[in-house]
Structure formats: C-alpha cells, structure tokens
Amino acid sequence: MKRTVGWIVVAALAVAMLDGCVVPLIGAAAVGGGTVVATDRRSVGIQLEDHKIESRVNAALIDNIPKTAMNIDVTSYDRRVLLTGQVRTAEQRALAESLARKVENVREVINELTVGEPATLGDRTDDTLLAGKVKTALLGADGVPTGVVDTTVEQGVVYLLGKVSPSEGEAAARAASRVSGVRRVVQDVRADQRAGRGGDQEEPDRVSEQRQDQRSPSVTAGCAPRPIAGSLAALTNRRRAG
C-alpha cells in the first residue's frame, strides 16, 4: 500500500502530510492535482507526470479488475511503476502488470503483487501507522537528505525508491530497518554517484534488501543490504514497458 515508505520519494515531507502526519512542508507546491517538491531530484515535469501515471494506472485497474478481488497500491517514480498489494488470482496479477505497462509514458513496471486474500482494514491501518514511523525515522536519519526518498509499506515490508547516492541509499535502508514492526526493507534505487552535487548522470539501477532479525525490533548490528532474490532482482535487467 502506498503508505509511502519504499524508495519513491515525492519528498518524505509531502508524503507525510498526505498520510496525516503533521509535518511542516517547505519548498512544495500543489500543481495540477499533484504535489511538487523542490528538494526532489526529479524535475518538476517528471514529478507531475508521475502523479498522472498513478491516476491512469489506477483507472485502468478499476476498469478491468473487480474491486473486491484486489488491493493494489500504485506508485510511480521517474515513470517506473511499483505495484504492491494483493490480487486473488495469478491471472489478475499478470493482468495488472500488463495494464500498467500499456499506460502512456510508463517505461518500466515492478510487479510486487502477491496472490491471495486482499489485506484487511486492520492490516492496512497497521501499514499506515508503520509508514508514518518510517518517514519520521528517515527525516531524522543522518546522511538522508530530505525529499529524495519515497516510501511504500505493504504488510510490514518497506519499499524505498529514489535517486540517491550509494551512501544515501544505505543510510536510508538502515534507518528504515531499525523501525519496530518493519519486517523487511526493499530498495529499488537509482544509484547516482553525483547525487547531492547537482549531477544528472546515473549509475545502473540497484536493488537490495535488509531483513530484520525476527527476534528483535531492531536490525541486527552490522547487517548490511544484500542483493535481493526473486522478482525485484530481475529489475537489474531493466524490464522496460512495451
């Protein structure tokens, strides 16, 4: 669910306000139905396009999949769409990805949907509360600039998306993994060696995760992100939208 915790940041501050967290918002403006954040490393045009993409994908899903059969959260960052949540069948999972790929200006789809019963209201409420905690942790984390990370939480899994330097990505992952209640942190990060210095060049995409020690509310000391297996790992092959 887009409780806003995974790496897509339309600015942690803007997302925090959307989720009901009372946080002063500086350098942001609502334009054309979306919030544009000055500290976001995406251009204003791309920020606005990401808002439009989310609306288009949501509309396509509603038109083609029964609402009772899905609980899907759509997040777009730099025209890359992350799908999280649940659908009842494998066919609906594939259909959701296909619909997202066909939406105008989508260049990549990250399908993290699971097959099963949609999350309960209680589960979604827990994710919303956890998202707020993670956003607060990121705001106070050393080495994580404000507004460069977007977060999405789904059943205790935190997805982090953004355009960051390697050190910023590691700092954000550590901060999120230490929040009580977080089961796992998944990064889908555009590593940018020049991030924070005004550079536009990007290193290849990188995806990693941190798992919390299930016996403790905080990450095991010295635990570093490692390559993730499964569907997110396939992102390294840059699945582009058709």
- First CA to last CA: what distance? 25 Å
Strand content: 25-35%
**Low-confidence blocks of residues:** 3-33, 198-242
- Domains, number: 2
Condensed summary:
The chain is 29% helix and 26% strand. It has 242 residues and is an alpha+beta fold. The strands form three sheets. A five-stranded mixed beta sheet has the order 6-7-8-9-10.
Explain the overall architecture.
This protein has 242 residues and is α+β, with helices and mostly antiparallel strands. The chain folds into 2 domains: 28-115, 2-Layer Sandwich (Histidine-containing Protein, Chain: A); 122-237. It is 29% helix and 26% strand. The chain contains 5 helices and 10 strands. The strands form 3 sheets. A 5-stranded mixed sheet has the order 6-7-8-9-10. Strands 3-4-5 form a 3-stranded mixed sheet. Strands 1-2 form a two-stranded antiparallel sheet. 45% of the residues are buried.
